[in-house]
């Protein structure tokens, strides 16, 4: 949407649409939304302050999208050329590497060509990540929280490892100092 394009030049603020759950006991995010993770967009968007939200933006998509087996017919190079305005194309081109031929990259990306270790477009639109709900805002937030918990656990274990190593080195230092007799000669420890 043209009105939303200017928003990417400022700080991203996700707007989640909510609805009642099946039992009418709680509020949940609508199913027809996909979330864009901040960690994936931060290299491409200028930002002023650090945000604690793991979501950069929420995009509503038509429910019919979830019924498709693949988005490759909807998102193609022909659609890029014929249905997007210049402003929309320029906004999306910011997410591609600079100083490269954007036309050939887009044809390869939207055509499904392999980029060394796969095609991110194909993973997103052809694989089941969209249809299985892996891009739903709640799933994106849960994945980010899991990633942060794993990172914290890793650094906690690394800190314990280093602390134990320092303790052992200090113990060896004390044993080394105790293994000398008064004249400075070494005593063999058995």
TrEMBL record:
CDD domains: DEUBAD_NFRKB. PROSITE patterns: DEUBAD (PS51916). It comes from the Eukaryota. InterPro entries: DEUBAD_dom, NFRKB. Residues 62-175 form the DEUBAD domain. One of its GO terms (cellular component) is Ino80 complex. Its main location: nucleus. Keywords: Nucleus. It is found in: Nucleus. This is DEUBAD domain-containing protein. It comes from Genlisea aurea.
């Amino acid at each position: 949407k043209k009105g939303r394009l200017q928003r990417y030049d400022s700080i991203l603020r996700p707007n989640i649409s909510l609805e009642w759950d099946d039992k009418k006991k709680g509020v949940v995010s609508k199913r027809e939304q996909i979330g864009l993770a901040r960690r994936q967009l931060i290299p491409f968007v200028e930002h002023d302050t650090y945000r604690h939200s793991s979501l950069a933006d929420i995009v509503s998509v038509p429910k019919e999208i979830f019924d498709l087996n693949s988005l490759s017919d909807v998102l193609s190079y022909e659609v890029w050329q014929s249905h997007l305005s210049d402003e929309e194309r320029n906004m999306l081109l910011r997410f591609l590497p600079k100083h490269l031929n954007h036309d050939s990259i887009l044809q390869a990306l939207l055509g499904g060509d392999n980029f060394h270790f796969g095609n991110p477009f194909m993973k997103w639109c052809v694989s089941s990540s969209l249809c299985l709900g892996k891009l739903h805002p709640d799933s994106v937030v849960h994945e980010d929280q899991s990633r942060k918990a794993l990172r914290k656990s890793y650094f906690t274990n690394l800190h314990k490892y280093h602390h134990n190593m320092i303790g052992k080195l200090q113990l060896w230092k004390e044993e080394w100092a105790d293994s000398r007799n008064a004249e400075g000669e070494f005593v063999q420890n058995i």
